[in-house]
Amino acid sequence: MRSANWRQYVRLICPLLLLAISAGQLQSQERLNILARARGTSAQSGQLVEIRIIIEQFSTREDQKALVDAFTRSGQTGLRDALEKMSAKGRISRIGSVGNDIKYIFEVPSTKGRHFRLLTDRNLAFGELYTGTRSSDYDVGGAELILTPDGKGSGTLLPACRLKLNKKKEIEMETFQNPWNLTNLVVSK
Length: 189
Description:
The protein has helices at residues 4-17, 61-85, 126-131, and strands at 32-39, 48-55, 90-94, 100-102, 104-108, 114-121, 140-147, 152-165, 171-175, 180-188. The chain contains 3 helices and 10 strands, in the order αββαββββαββββ. Strands 1, 2, 3, 4, 5, 6, 7, 8, 9 and 10 form a 10-stranded antiparallel β-sheet that branches. The radius of gyration is 16 Å and the shape is globular. Helix content is 24%, strand content 39%. The N and C termini lie far apart (42 Å). It has one domain (4-188). By secondary structure, the protein is an alpha+beta fold.
């Protein structure tokens, strides 16, 4: 069972990933190529994976509205369906693998560098779908990146999660496994 501290963390990060897009201006932006080291936590502790995140463009307010409406109307299934219909705004992959399209990217206004939030539909493996494993219910992935003015930074990667409403009608993000810490972020253009 997850600890109470972990649930508080997830309650904080979920609104940051999707619905607390309280506004910041969407800026035009150049392509960013970000290299990072993902470090497992808890059960994945000690595992290190090099990843590449490519940001081609930001999502629009129409994209935001489509996701919010889909989640409000049909929950996790609606959110997944809306993400599948969106065009790719970037890509995330382990070094040496094909990876996955990032469908929703926005930049949060920050005075301490750049702050990005990413959301995508997760590729489900044939085995997950065929055997109906519990992991197939966690069909969305997310990340938060914080880049300092010198082009370095840190972040959090949530590879498999699902969103749901709690008793207070607040959106929570439940993860299938623990988050991965992103360190040694290096940006190149």
